[in-house]
Write a structure and sequence with these properties.
By secondary structure, this protein is mainly α. It is 66% helix and 0% strand. The longest helix is centred in the C-terminal third of the chain and has 33 residues.
């Protein structure tokens, strides 16, 4: 699990976030384990922090709104900020050091991955349709959602392959 999480962090933080930081100056996920915000109207003002992010979902809210409010809240805050403040910038610090604890059990690890995946996908769906998002970030968000849906087809193809091999 430690190797998987280290690899995942290297790819997502070291490659994707670095590209976002350099190309668009809008990193869409600042993970809670290493997030540092300048407290100002753009990042933590009443509109962003209280009206958008501080929302507690109602039972009548849609599934995506429920997920965004309860899963991967660090990413949700940044995505809400970027959609509400088109001039906001988020960057990745190259020399920052952060440490996180990898879950001890497989069940906790899988639960964490499920929460992170649901949060990331629902926030990417929000970025695809939100105003104020750069076209490049909108395209990246769209492909992130699309690749998530591809996993279902890959698993279905593997299941068909196993079934075909067993039935011969």
């Amino acid at each position: 699990m430690k190797l998987y999480q280290s690899t995942e962090y290297t790819i997502s933080q070291g490659l994707r976030r670095m590209h976002q930081s350099i190309a668009t100056k809008k990193v869409s996920c600042l993970p809670g384990c290493c997030q540092l915000l300048k407290v100002c109207e753009t990042t933590c003002g009443d509109y962003v922090l209280i009206e958008l992010f501080g929302y507690f979902p109602k039972p009548t809210d849609g599934l995506l709104k429920q997920i965004r409010a309860t899963a991967s809240e660090d990413r949700n805050h940044v995505c809400l900020m970027l959609s509400a403040r088109s001039t906001a910038q988020t960057r990745q610090a190259l020399r920052a050091h952060a440490f996180t604890v990898v879950p001890d059990s497989v069940s906790v690890f899988l639960s964490q991955r499920k929460r992170w995946t649901l949060g990331a996908t629902s926030n990417d769906l929000m970025l695809v349709r939100s105003r104020g998002i750069q076209w490049f970030e909108r395209i990246l968000a769209f492909f992130n959602v699309w690749t998530w849906f591809l996993n279902v087809f890959i698993l279905a193809c593997l299941a068909c392959l196993v079934y075909a091999c067993l039935c011969e």
